[in-house]
Design brief:
The chain is mainly β. The chain is built from one helix and nine strands.
C-alpha cells in the first residue's frame, strides 16, 4: 500500500524535476507499520515510460526505511544518503539485497512515494504531512 506524488506531471506523464538546489526532503509522519520512502528518478524508470532503465530491475528507486511512529515524527532524506546504496527494499527487508544499483541524480527526480509493507496481511494506518524540501 502506498501514497505518492509526482513533482512534475503533465497530462498524466511523469517528467523529471531538478531538485539539486535542495539538500533533501523532510516530512512529518505517523504509522503503525514501518515505512519505506522512495525518491523515484528517470534512471530507474523503464524506457517504455520515458526512463533509461532497460533491464529487469526497473523501479529500483532510491529510498530510506523509517520505523513505526505512534505520534507525529519528522522524517528526513538527504540526497547525500541516496548517493550510495540506498536503493529499493521493503520496510522490513535489507535494502542492500535487491537490484541494479544506479547513481542517484537529483536533476532527474520524478516523484516521492510512501510505502507500507502489508504483504503479510497486517493492517496498517499511516499519515503524512508537511512535506518540504530542505
Amino acid at each position: 500500500a502506498g501514497l505518492g506524488v509526482d513533482f512534475n506531471n503533465c497530462n498524466t506523464k511523469s517528467n523529471p524535476y531538478d531538485v539539486s538546489a535542495y539538500s533533501g526532503i523532510s516530512f512529518s509522519y505517523k504509522s503503525n507499520q514501518p515505512l519505506r520512502v522512495l525518491v523515484g528518478s528517470l534512471p530507474n524508470l523503464p524506457t517504455s515510460e520515458g526512463g533509461s532503465c532497460s533491464d529487469s530491475d526497473c523501479y529500483n528507486h532510491h529510498g530510506k526505511n523509517f520505523a513505526t511512529a505512534g505520534s507525529w515524527t519528522t522524517g528526513t532524506i538527504t540526497w547525500a544518503e541516496l548517493q550510495g546504496s540506498a536503493q529499493i527494499g521493503s520496510p522490513a527487508a535489507d535494502p542492500q539485497t535487491y537490484g541494479t544499483k544506479r547513481p542517484f541524480d537529483p536533476t532527474k527526480v520524478l516523484n516521492l512515494e510512501f510505502q507500507v509493507d502489508s504483504s503479510g496481511g497486517a493492517s496498517f494506518d499511516f499519515w503524512v504531512d508537511n512535506v518540504t524540501f530542505l
